[in-house]
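note to self — DONT lose this again. spent like an hour looking for the file last time. sequence + predicted structure for the chain T wanted, 555 res
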Amino acid sequence: MSQEDKKERMIHPPAEFPRGVRLLHDPVRNKGTAFTKEERDALSLRGLLPPRIQSQALQVIRVLENLRQKPSDLERYIFLIALQDRNETLFYRVVMDNLKEIMPLIYTPTVGQACQLYGHIFRRPRGMFISAEDRGRVAEVLGNWPHKDVRIVVVTDGERILGLGDLGASGMGIPIGKLVLYTACAGIHPTQCLPVTLDVGTDNEALLEDPLYIGLQQRRIRGQSYDEFIDEFLAAIVEAFPRAVIQLEDFANANAFRILEKYQERICIFDDDIQGTGSVVLAGLYSALRITGGNITDQRVLFLGAGEAGLGIGSLIVEAMVAEGLSEEEARKRCWFFDSKGLVVKGREGLASHKLPFAHEYEFIDDFLAAIKSLRPTAIIGVSGMPGTFDQQILETMAALNERPIVFALSNPTSKSECTAEQAYSWTGGRAVFASGSPFDPVYFGGRTYIPGQGNNAYIFPGVGLGAIVSGTRHVTQEMFFVAARSLMLEASDEELEMGQIYPSLSRVRDVSARIAAEVAEVAYARQLARNPKPDDLPACVRSQMFEPDYISYV
């Protein structure tokens, strides 16, 4: 742009561009004290800001100083959300440059507490709340969303938030947090992200009696009414945002499996609790085998919990074993599940349909320790939401059966973890290969420092989503999550593995996401699912589409 053009643009900014207070209240365009003198003149900002112009770098210093003075993680969460509400670019600069410090504040474990108290800390609406009262007019409601180029939709009905259960409309913190990670970890532009809560009521008595609860104060709709509402919503999303990838989040088990099965071959949709969790845990298992030795086909895995996460992990492990030469039947026999009633075996009455593929011919056992002694697993994976269930006796037994027992305590938030990192290392004599769902601090034991791996889905779903966007895939397939796991497995360095860290540092997550995105896009092109032309240099194309939170000049 020539100097004359710049001058003309400064004197005559586009008529539709917000000015003055409206601009300062627009979180997408607001730059706060970083607006230049020319911008202040052109955009009617003079006098509305302190006279000193401060760079984004100085603003970051101010934000971090204030953030670190807050007395609790919940207060830090509220502070960060307030920043996001007034200046998104600055918010993402702070997050991306300090991801290891801030991710636990904007997502697990802090987001769990924020959801539990959502109605009490509510400041400003974010995302879309589409309620059962909107049936018959969901498409009209979606038309109120201001950004029309939506590429990622994260939706929940709030019935199974983390390991906390039914939080109804208060579960909105989850899709908001997931989409922050899409931007921070994979560079999806914030205006292309749409968080949605489907408010179909709640069966949580405490919320129904809470005058500050933000959702419908009614019981959940079920059955045909629920299904018709989901059908209407998904049809409206596809119509309004035809290039969007839809991510299901924290639905109850029965609904999650049913919705995914119904729609995964019709539209571009996936369930992060089933497929994203499966992928990140499979990657962790591959990385653990780089420490323990052996092949994935030699493993026997016992799950505590048989919900979305566990069965999603089991299904992807089966796929990995089949790829290594086992038959599907042989592979399934290496994955065992223990639910709230006991070992999942054939002949057990009342088994849900989604558990039947993993119901093996075996004696029924109703004690988890007894199941370990009988099945002799090489790995135990906790996805139960039951804290402390990997007790000392269980971990000592795993250590007696295995030179390097694999112990994944994945339930979120931290308060729901099946064991702590310190317990896993100390009760196995420092021999456990450990990963958790929420972060734990490093552990010093036996003269060594161990850095626990965090099996965080943020290593997987942002890259899968980015790859789906770049390729314009019509569907998100199981194969895409398999190649994402294989890609992630290679990212942990030898030095990280030496300290027990089976996942790479979060500081490298954008590089990880870019590589996963390229792998996922390759699958879309190979399977003829892609709607976008294949670029000559796919990795470079992926990188070019990743948002960087830098201020731009408006004049």
